[in-house]
Design brief:
It is a single chain. This protein has one domain: Beta Barrel (Thrombin, subunit H), CATH 2.40.10.220. By secondary structure, the protein is mainly β. 0% of the residues lie in helices and 50% in strands.
Length: 105
């Protein structure tokens, strides 16, 4: 919308990288790709319609210990806050994950 202001609390950083996602109490691994991240969450593309308000763990496929940035952590825990169906590049869903507290990179 013209003149609309971004009301997000944390800046988003575009970043494409493969991720693995699983529900907190289940062992099944689902694959996807991160679209962007912030200090408070991340947006991923996946073929799975994750359920709202469920806790998930996201594993960074390109994890690099000792580096700064989003790949400095191997695992992220968070809650599914929104799901949108899109169907781009073979991924059918875009999922917003919120971290329990802000991450510092």
């Amino acid at each position: 919308m013209p003149g609309s202001k971004d009301r997000r609390s944390f800046k988003r950083y575009p970043y494409k990288t493969p991720v693995e996602v699983r529900y907190e109490n289940k062992g099944d691994i689902h694959y996807g790709q991160m679209r962007n991240y912030s200090n408070k969450g991340m947006c991923i593309e996946t073929s799975e319609p994750f359920k709202l308000d469920n806790n998930v763990y996201i594993r960074m496929k390109e994890y690099h210990p000792g580096r700064k940035g989003v790949n400095s952590y191997e695992w992220y825990g968070g809650k599914v806050r929104w799901v949108r169906e899109e169907g781009e590049k073979g991924m059918d869903f875009v999922v917003g994950i919120q971290f329990p507290s802000p991450m510092m990179y």
